[in-house]
Write a structure and sequence with these properties.
Blueprint: H1 2-8, H2 14-25, H3 27-42, H4 46-74, H5 76-99, H6 104-114, H7 120-132, H8 137-166, H9 171-188, H10 214-243, H11 250-270, E1 275-276, H12 277-290, H13 293-297, H14 301-312, H15 315-329, H16 335-364, H17 370-390, H18 392-395, E2 399-400
Antiparallel strand pairs: 1-2
Helix pairs in contact: 1-8, 2-7, 2-9, 3-4, 3-8, 3-9, 4-5, 4-6, 4-16, 5-6, 5-9, 7-8, 7-16, 8-9, 8-11, 8-15, 10-11, 10-15, 10-16, 10-17, 11-14, 11-15, 12-15, 12-17, 15-16, 16-17
Length: 402
């Protein structure tokens, strides 16, 4: 299995941009939780902390596709430093406002500016695509990137929280800002692997957003629904573990979810399949929906760990298929924007799922919160079914083969 991944790095420059991209994407999961931890300590209000963090997440979801759209037109080297610089400036403003205890509205301004953070996952995927477009290795590369996304979301929050609690309330977001600056710099100086910029079309159609493409909107909706499941599992697992009298066990539960997704992603990327992508999308949607049911049956920590492990098995493969479809749907000159819309949708879903399930937990108890995941699973299935029929004319000739 690992030979498939070793082959990826035989191309010149791949190790460098993969490492830089990994470093540059850690700040995203660090920043949101870092804002909450920082403001909860300084201002003593989880409501304010959550609202400021949500401002960052929503701004990121709205602006990251626009940043990627500019990248497609002008190149990573010209756009990423400016976008990352604006994001770092916003984080520093937020830290300064929290340190000097300025008015609450200033915190929201800083969070909004921080939300201009570019989607570094999409930037790295675009580089892989430039090297392996039309080749079996591209699907393996997408699998690797999905697993690395999972790794950053596993490692980022504990690092940020640990720094903010053990060192200084502002330490977590500050570390995120530093890592973003270093990671983006390390990526943009690697000009040999930067995707080429396509020449502007005479009719000006290349200035239109790929979000106008119905299939891109559909896949973004799919990722929102999948994100809701992830956000629900995060919040409800913590509440469930606390209800069981073992709050520390929440980390074990969440690790099981991440492990299931990572292992499945690695295995899926190494498999050799010849199946139309639309069929894989439908199977992934069906499996994702079905695996939300055991969450409602968990009666203890062990049962919940097993349930989320199974649920995680189908997250990464479904996301990989969605990314593969985008690579085929959107024009080559707009690939970065297309992938960013999906990643932005995932983040919106995670934030929405956490908020919705948190409300349900407060009103009805921990286990009831998993009903949000069940509803989102139904949504994933319906969107996948919709996509199956919409894409069959185009995708019948496109197989997933790695």
């Amino acid at each position: 299995m690992f030979s498939s991944y070793r082959e990826l790095f035989q191309a010149r420059g791949t190790r460098g941009f993969a490492l830089a991209g990994l470093l540059a994407r850690i700040p995203l999961p660090m920043t949101g939780i870092g804002i909450i931890t920082m403001l909860a300590q300084i201002r003593g209000s989880y409501g304010l902390a959550g609202a400021v963090s949500a401002t960052f997440v929503l701004t990121y979801a709205l602006m990251s596709p626009q940043v990627s759209r500019l990248v497609d037109r002008y190149g990573q080297r010209r756009v990423l430093p400016a976008a990352a610089g604006l994001s770092v400036l916003g984080i520093l403003l937020l830290l300064a406002c929290s340190y000097w205890n300025t008015a609450d509205w200033t915190l929201f301004v800083g969070a909004a500016l921080a939300g201009f953070m570019p989607s570094m996952s999409a930037m790295v995927r675009a580089r892989w695509t430039a090297i392996y477009r039309g080749k079996p290795q591209l699907q393996t590369a997408f699998s690797l990137e999905t697993v690395l996304d999972e790794v950053t979301f596993i490692a980022g929050p504990p690092i940020s929280v640990g720094l903010s609690v053990a060192v200084l309330p502002q330490a977590g977001p500050l570390a995120a800002a530093v890592l973003l600056a270093i990671g983006v710099f390390a990526l943009v100086v690697q000009v040999s692997t930067e995707p080429p910029v396509e020449a502007a079309s005479a009719d000006g159609r290349d200035t239109e957003s790929v979000f106008r493409i119905a299939d891109v909107r559909l896949l973004t909706l799919l990722m929102i629904a999948m994100g809701v499941i992830v956000g629900t599992v995060d919040i409800v697992s913590v509440a469930f573990a606390e209800q069981m009298g073992s709050p520390a066990a929440a980390s074990v539960v969440l690790s099981c979810y991440a492990i299931g997704s990572c292992v499945a992603g690695l295995v899926f990327g190494a498999m050799k399949l010849n199946t139309p992508l639309r069929k894989l999308l439908l199977l992934g949607g069906l499996a994702t929906a079905a695996t939300t049911l055991p969450l409602l049956l968990a009666g203890n920590i062990f049962g919940l760990s097993a349930a989320v492990l199974v649920a995680g098995l189908f997250f990464a493969p479904t996301m990989i298929v969605a990314m593969s479809l985008v690579e085929r749907i959107v024009p080559e000159s707009k690939l970065t924007e297309g992938m960013t819309w999906l990643l932005a949708g995932l983040n919106v879903g995670v934030a929405g799922g956490a908020a919705a399930s948190g409300q349900v937990v407060d009103l009805m108890g921990a286990k009831a919160g998993f009903n949000v995941a069940l509803c989102a699973g139904v949504g994933v299935l319906l969107v996948a079914l919709w996509g199956y029929y919409r894409m069959r004319d185009r995708a019948d000739q496109v197989s997933y083969s790695v």
